[in-house]
Amino acid sequence: MKNLSSWLIAMFAFMFWGFRVVTTILYSMGTEFIAEPMDMTMEIVLLFITFICICFIIRRKLLPTIIYLIAHGLYYGVYLYQNVMLLIDGKASINSYMSLLVALVGITIPIFAFFDVLLDKSRKAHPVDKQTDWFYKNEEYDRKVDERSDRNQYRTM
Hints:
The chain is mostly helical. The chain has one domain. Helices cover 79% and strands 0% of the residues. It has 6 helices and no strands. It has helices at residues 4-28, 40-58, 62-89, 94-125, 130-136, 139-151. Helix 1 (4-28) packs antiparallel against helix 2 (40-58) and helix 2 crosses helix 3. The chain is elongated and about 75 Å long. The N and C termini lie far apart (51 Å).
């Protein structure tokens, strides 16, 4: 993760995860926070899946990113659809607007993470680093070192 965008996506993902943890804990205690979970059991499962996937997204793995995108798309997609239908019917309240915002954030972060890892995958397949390639990819330097080491065989007897 050399890009600022990768670090920002990971930080926003962890911050949103922390926000959902706090929301879930407060909802389970009976306190209303900004947005309440749609389904408490699925929210807890999603929190565990999200934490594991974010840890692997930082390591630039593609499969956990796809799982993260699908899990959030299925959960927050339904949440987003329900809130949009409330807005269309004219039955929306302040909580509906906040839930809509949370659902939008819950869908956009995995989309950005997916495209970030997907675009970074091509770079990781053939990395070019000018600071170290002169040493590791220089076969002429390796031959010189091998020739010197063959001539300098000292015995200690």
